[in-house]
């Protein structure tokens, strides 16, 4: 069980773990999947958003911290929980095995004060409907690098996509990368129940941006009761922390 930052709501969290017997050197398993929970009232599974992950020796698990609110799970009317039991599942959309680059990449993660190079940037938008897609936040500095947020409509036209981008990644030393922990959030201006997602990624010359294609549905974003968009105003926040670096040898 986890609690989200900014409120006391408890959630059920789920993770998919690659068995050690399936972990092979120089092999990456690219997987797209959804977690499911069976809703007995409708006789079908409720699906969580798609998760994409590259399973490998250095990263053998992935999942969601907020599958379902514990209060919702326990509600008798929801029919998720019956006789103190519930049914979770997983739906694989794509699984592919690829050979990793044979170049040795050594990851150095700082073990103390790992969030010294960190910062928070708030992007206040006063006229959302006047923006063109994609749109970009003002630039900001964290850890000696320049960053900005990119926001656009997803390819399916039903979601907002959100990405953290590094400006001028060619300023990084050749064959190196920075391991960054990033939290992007859309603020709930009414009740403080923000839409927030967190992940880690290596930023390099070849990979200067990272984020979520389906950060939030446009239906939820434009729903005034959610508090994300009020009279054309919304607030986006990026928490960025440099937690390590890597070098190819």
Question: Would you give an account of this structure?
Answer:
With 249 residues, the protein is mainly beta. It has 2 domains: 2-99, Apoptosis, Tumor Necrosis Factor Receptor Associated Protein 2, Chain A (Sandwich), CATH 2.60.210; 105-248, Apoptosis, Tumor Necrosis Factor Receptor Associated Protein 2, Chain A (Sandwich), CATH 2.60.210. It is 4% helix and 53% strand. It has 2 helices and 17 strands. Strands 8, 9, 14, 15 and 17 form a 5-stranded antiparallel β-sheet that branches. Strands 10, 11, 12, 13 and 16 form a 5-stranded antiparallel β-sheet that branches. Strands 3, 4, 5 and 7 form a 4-stranded antiparallel β-sheet that branches. A hairpin with a 2-residue loop joins strand 11 and strand 12 (145-153). The longest helix has 5 residues, at 70-74. It starts with a strand and ends with a strand. Residues 1-5 and 102-115 have low confidence and may be disordered.
Keywords, separated by commas or semicolons:
2 domains, five-stranded antiparallel β-sheet, 53% strand, Apoptosis, Tumor Necrosis Factor Receptor Associated Protein 2, Chain A, 249 residues, MATH domain-containing protein, 2 helices, TRAF-like, mainly beta
């Amino acid at each position: 069980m986890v609690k989200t930052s900014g409120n006391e709501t408890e959630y059920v969290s789920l993770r998919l773990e690659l068995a050690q017997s399936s972990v092979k050197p120089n092999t990456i398993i690219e997987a797209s999947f959804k977690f499911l929970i069976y809703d007995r009232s409708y006789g079908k599974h409720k699906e969580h958003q798609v998760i994409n992950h590259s399973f490998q020796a250095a990263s053998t698990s992935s999942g969601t911290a907020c599958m379902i609110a514990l209060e919702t799970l326990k509600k008798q009317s929801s029919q998720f929980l019956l006789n103190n039991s519930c049914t979770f599942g997983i739906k694989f959309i794509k699984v592919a095995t690829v050979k990793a680059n044979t170049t040795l990449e050594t990851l150095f993660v700082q073990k103390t004060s790992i969030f010294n190079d960190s910062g928070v940037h708030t992007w206040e938008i006063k006229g959302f409907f006047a923006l063109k897609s994609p749109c970009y936040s003002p630039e900001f500095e964290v850890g000696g690098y320049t960053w900005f947020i990119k926001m656009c409509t997803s390819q399916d036209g039903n979601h907002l996509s959100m990405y953290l981008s590094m400006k001028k990644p060619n300023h990084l030393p050749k064959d190196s990368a920075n391991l960054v922990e990033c939290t992007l959030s859309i603020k709930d201006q009414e009740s403080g129940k923000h839409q927030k997602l967190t992940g880690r990624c290596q930023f390099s010359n070849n990979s200067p941006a990272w984020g979520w294609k389906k950060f939030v549905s446009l239906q939820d974003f434009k729903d005034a009761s959610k508090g994300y968009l009020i009279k054309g105003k919304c607030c986006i926040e990026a928490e960025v922390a440099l937690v390590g670096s890597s070098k190819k040898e």
